[in-house]
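User
Take a look at the entry that follows and flag anything odd:
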Amino acid sequence: MEACRLEAHIRFSTGGEQCAENCHPFRDSDISGREWTLIHNGILFNEELPAGYDRREQGETDSERTMLFLLDVLDEAALRAGGALDFEGTFNALAGALSQIPNLNRLNLIMDDSSYTYVHTNTSEDTLHFRQLADDAIVFSTKPLRGEAEKALWKPVPRNRLIAYHDGHLVRTSVPHGYTFCEAILDLRRKFGDAWPEVLAS
């Protein structure tokens, strides 16, 4: 059978053990039985919203906790709606959550439910790109692939908003939020460890 979707993630770990439970993509189902996958390139410094999901996760990554939180958001929206969410309901629920989680967090992520692909980035530098291969085919990558010869064919994903695609076509874009993550924070984290907030404040 020919696959119409392919997700690959090479993990450069910022924390957690190197084991299968911590590997992307993460997979789970919402309350309606719809299966989801998530891949995430980023780090959460502010885990107020996903707090408590460490008791439910199989591994020990903020990426898995983010997915569990987003699935709970979808489940709550479905319960309020009295049934399974359509695309609009799903998009609105995810967009609402993704307008809050990026506060102090680096959130490059792709979620997919086998029908729609949802993409989000909020970094101050271009850390997520896309390339339209055909009318019904699109590729996302942290960095442009295949070197300088094809670099111009890639475009940065617009930041600070949720973007939905269906069969390679842009379907909907949310209103931008204001939480741009400054990449310099990661440099401070690498240099000073957990003491970086005090360094930033000094």
Remarks:
- The longest strand covers residues 35-44.
- The chain has a mean pLDDT of 84.
